[in-house]
Structures are given as structure tokens and as C-alpha cells.
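Minimal example, chain plus NAP.
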Amino acid sequence: MRFTDKVAIITGAASGIGLATAKRLGSEGARVVIADLDEEAAQTAAATVREVGAPDVLTSTCDVSKEVQVKNTVKDTLQKFGRLDIVVNNAGLMIFKPLEEHEESDWLNVLRVDLLGAFFFTKQAFLTMKAGGAIVNVSSVHAIETTPLVSSYAAAKAALLSLTRSAALEGKPKGIRVNAVLPGAIDTPMLWENPNVKSGQEVINPADVGKPEQVAATIAYLASDDATFVQGAMVRADGGRLSRL
Ligand code: NAP
């Protein structure tokens, strides 16, 4: 039970990797805050997180791209649980368009969710967390190598790695660790709704498709005291897909 007495906020936790992470941390003793856009989906997720043994679960309707909503989620967390130990910046948005069809608003929407959302939570965490806290940012292999039509997403996920490095440097004197995980192709709605995958333009070998629980296990490691000397790390969870020529 690595997370007994700890409190964890997980964004985008109503589905996919976020939900698997909420279940993993909850099953290891964390009190979990499910921060997601859709209150009904968050409530359904909360029930499954309780079922695996989480001692307590709070749902918080939160659009991570809105700083005021992020502040409210952190405030509600502190009000209910009196502490914040872990933040998993998992909520993500992907837009599929050729570069020449991308509008400024597309870029801003993706950057607001995938980059600024993590910044807003990091800022609140730095203002409220005690030494021993941990932040895990969910980036993507697209931060390193990418496919056509996802320029804004690839750029945002690369910038999230840069934010991870900066936050790790500034977090160290506060005793707060900041690390990133880079999932490959993971069996969640986001993967199968990907038009590149649907059209067959991006072919994924079934052996290269991981489960959300496998990414959640990596996130749980980075969030746990098993990783007390891991700071600013960028850990791929892609089954080795990125290594292949
Ligand atoms: P998912 O199943 O679609 O879950 C994402 C969750 O985030 C959904 O519940 C979604 O709510 C929520 N969300 C979206 N925008 C939000 C916002 N502004 N504020 C709060 N919540 C928001 O996706 P996933 O595959 O688990 O993805 C989780 C993370 O992993 C993302 O950052 C993604 O980029 C990254 N990732 C995924 C893969 C993959 O292959 N699946 C690979 C690499 C990286 P709605 O459903 O209501 O929109």
C-alpha cells in the first residue's frame, strides 16, 4: 500500500489512462480526486474507484484549461482532505488536421488543455503541496516522433516535457518531484477515435498496443516513494514501439 494517507488529484480520470490511474492509486490506499469535464462520467468512474478499495473519492468538475476551475479543484481537495500529495496531469486533447487547415483557435485549444492545464495544476501544487509531493505529467511518444495531421498535439506534448524539466528544477528545493510518462499506443477511446488509425493510414501492430493499466503502473511508480530519487525523468511506456527503425 504505497499511497496510504496520501491524496491524489488525477485529471481526465473519468476514462482511459486517467481512470486506470485513479483505480491503481486508490487500490494502493490513496484518497482520489477525479477531475474531469463531465460530472456524470466522473461519478460513474468514482464508483469503480471505490470498488477497488480507494478509502475515499471526490469528484470535481474541472476543465483543466480554465485556471479558475483548477484553483477550485485544488481548494475543494484541501477543504475535504486537508492535504495534496500527488497530481497526475493526464487530461489531453488531440486535433487531426493538416497544418494548412489548423486555425489559431485549434492551436490555442490544444495548448490550453495539454500544456496550460498542466501548468495551472503545477502552479497550485507548488503553492499548496508539502515536501514529499509528486507530479506526473502524461505526455506522449508524439513528443519525440510523430505522424501527420497532429502538429498541435505533438508540439503541446513536447512542450509538456519542457515544462516537466523546468518544474523538476524548481520543485527540487521544495521537495516536490516532477516527472513525465510518454505512453505509446494505448487501448483507450482516444486511440480508436484517432482518424489516422481508423483510416488505416497509421497501422499499429496489435503487439504494440498497451493497456491503460500498464501506463497507470508506470505513473504509480513515479508518484510513489519508490521513485524518491527520480526527478525530471521522461519515461516511455510504449512497449518499445519508438525504438524500432
Ligand atoms: P481518453 O480515454 O479520451 O480520456 C481522456 C479524459 O480526459 C476524458 O475523460 C476526457 O473527457 C478528459 N478531458 C478532456 N479534456 C479535458 C479538459 N479540458 N479538462 C478535464 N478533462 C478533460 O484518453 P486517454 O487515451 O486515456 O488519454 C489520457 C492521456 O494520455 C492524454 O493526455 C493523452 O494525450 C495521453 N496519451 C494517450 C495515448 C493513447 O494511445 N491512448 C497515447 C499517448 C498519450 P471527455 O471524454 O468528456 O472529453
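The chain has a mean pLDDT of 97. Residues 7-233 form a domain with the Rossmann fold fold (CATH 3.40.50.720).
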